[in-house]
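Lecture 7 notes. Example A: sequence first, then its structure tokens.
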Amino acid sequence: MRSCPLFLLSFVLACCLCVPGAAQQVNIEINTLSLFDSARNRPVPLCIYAPVKEGKGRLKPALISHGYGGKNNGYGFIAAYLAAHGYYVVSIQQDLPEDAPMPNTGKPYEVRMPFWKRGAESILFTLNELKKTKPSLDYQHLLLVGHSNGGDMSMLFAKNYPGLAAAIISLDNRRMPFPRAERPRVLSLRSSDQPADSGVIPTPAEQARYHMKVVKLPATIHNDMWDGATEAQKAEMLRYIGAFLRTL
């Protein structure tokens, strides 16, 4: 499998993030990079967030998949927060202009499965390329983050490639069932307006057994779970994400 990296943009972003017990100024370097998966004849554009000055210990990889119709640079508040807390964050552009639109009719689990599979393959491709260029990352603690359709892709990745992901943060995925397993650990932030399909979210007993955290956000709708959220919504989501990271 051949990849052709091309750096498109590089700049430094200073993020003031609220961390437990103190306010901390963190410099985050943001790069865009385009890879090419020759096996699938598909470009894989990436947006990368990493701390300019690494702290103690190895950085852990985090791969973000956006919601349908979204952009890989649309989750910067989460990506920067993760980068400031020990992660090397890669946000994948899952939808390309030349892709066929996702069907609006039929059973979602069936008609959208090919899109989720393609997304899971892009996650795997990105992970394998990352291992070549960043071998020092702590791949035993791979974190997946996905919003809506990207969350479904992340759940499918965990199912198809068991053992690779240590944790998943799902922002309101609605179709692909959560893995019922000890690994990966799951945090799911649920919107106030769009329910998941039957069987997607584990029962309370299953959540307790597998140490999952499912949280409904009463003041956040499905389409608010990105950089377009209010500052209060972002702060609420980051509080739950921060608490989850401390359990890993």
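Example B, a different protein, same format:
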Amino acid sequence: MQHNLLLSILVFFLAYSGCNDEKVSPPKQSYFQSILTDSTLNEWSGKSGYWTFEDGVLTGEITPNNILLENTFFIWNGEISENFELKAEFRISGKGNSGINYRSSLVEGKDFALKGYQADFNGSHEFTGNIYDEKGRGTLAKRGQIVYVPSTNSATNIVRTGTGEALFSKIDTTKNGWNEYHIIANGNTVIHLVNGHIMSTLIDESDSRIIGKKLGLQLHLGPPMKVEFRNIQLKKL
């Protein structure tokens, strides 16, 4: 039964994402809104000395003289609805590690720290497309996987189907390549697309899941690196 459920959900979202020729018109009042611009920059906050915004591009950078000891986030001070779509273009240096946190919560006692769902990516693109749980359960769905997590979950009853190394070819790995993340969060289902292609799907009914209202862009601790974001757009569902 679980296997049939996963197949049904995959078929539905393949159709939704435009993998067939038939297009479904969105509701007239449904639209994407840019949330990081010159005029809305004051709605965001991040750790001083690590973030800059110029010509519509947000840059997070770690340098040899400015090492980061723990993950930090550039956080939107607004609140995302539980059900939404988010699009954002990203670019990252070869040794970089980053992600887009959503449905997240602030970490008590720490500045600019989040816990919750993350659209993962890194410079080698080993993790790009994965669904990750920051400061929680770790990687939930890898690229190419559909994962079902029941309310009472254990390693024996979490259902994982699919492999997806062929999807690596859908990622622009060139030095100057920009990629687009598209996140769909609706009810217990979360889907990550990169450049219009479904990368991972999660049906999460776990009692331990976090459903927060925070959105943030990650700068991961580690060696010197640079990550860039632009054209961040949000649509409520």
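Note on Example B: The chain is about 5% helix and 45% strand. Confidence is low (pLDDT under 50) at residues 1-5, 11-26.
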